[in-house]
Amino acid sequence: MDKLWNYRKKILKRGRKYIAVNILEAILVLVILIIPRVFVLPKNVVNFYSENIFPKIALLGNSFSDIFVFSLTEVLVICGSVSAIIYVIYVIVQIIKAEKRIGIRRLIFRRFITVVLTIALFASATGTLMHKLNYYRSTAASRLDIKGEYSDYYDFLETLEWAYKGMIYARMQLGEDYNGVSHMITDFDTTVSDLNDLLDYFNYTYDMGMSTNFIKCKPVMCSHYWSYTNIVGMYFSIFGEANINTDNMNTLEFPLTVAHEIIHAKGYAREYDANSIGVLALIFSERADFRYCGYYKIFSNLYSETCRYADSLGLDEPDMITSDYAAVVRDIEAQEAYWKQIDEEIENTFLLSDIDDISESINNLYLKSNGQKEGTATYNVSPNIYVDFYRKYVIGE
User: Fold this and answer.
1) pLDDT of 335-361, one tens digit each?
2) pTM for the full model?
3) CA-CA distance, 353 to 266, in Å (whole number)?
4) CB within 8 Å of 235: residues ≥ 6 apart
5) Residue 65: helix, strand or coil by DSSP?
6) For the chain, what is the radius of gyration of the CA atoms?
């Protein structure tokens, strides 16, 4: 009886230690997650971190990720999900089998909570250092000293015409498949290397304060099924790893997708910053496929806005679509055909019928939890950024 009593006291003592550890870890997780949101850090402090400290910390993650040719994020999602399910089942079985009166069930449960909180603490700490603090740095527009000052209709119209001409000229330099659809000039690895060089050039030219670490993007093996979520790229901050959906390497979207994730890994967390920097960098490339993507994004961003502007002033909408635009239309139709095929596959799979909506909701909640009040709408770049850039830097006003 004494042995049983001593054993029970030992179990209770260990249980109390787990409670103390769990409380401490829970507090640390809350502090790490809440402090940057509640107590807004001064811009100069965050900028110093993003430009001087983040690159050194990120280099550790980048170097570790670069050891592997495959996506560590993909392996973690697949293997981690299976392992988590097995572990939860194991814990449940252990709790059921344990003797209730001795207190072993509570010990097993508290130990399980410790494992969960330890993982959460590691993920929140690395996520904050490798990405979340960068949400609070100065915007790309402020680095470029863009203030939305060029808002006249004719400023918009001139920028639109410039983007259209750049898009058409770049498209004419691209090869086509038998359907008349353009294709990327090089393979994936060369594309990634060229984009790293291009972003470093843009960073140096316009003093954007980005990391100069080389970002080795990882193609996702399950890219086709990943498309069911409508996600084409993801930066996983724990590994500092940029993951790319390679199922549809089209010229209208793919260069910006890769550039977008590289920019996240180089220190800009906001979605509109990653998109605006990516687009503006692409138009300065020597590669026609990069320029085509960049100018197309500016053109598509400005066209509807310029038309609305013209309508509000009682002017005719801009009509600049020439016969050369037919090639762009073929690329757009090919892109739409791909996503239509994906939608049909989702509709025919009962268990995945709402996966794209779920993915959108999760991403929207994630962005809002990091201070991006508009959620997934923050992917949209203000047309003024492109108009101002054109007036300020291209024609030098």
Assistant:
1) 999 999 998 888 877 555 566 566 666
2) 0.89
3) 35
4) 131, 241, 242, 243, 261, 264, 265
5) helix
6) 25
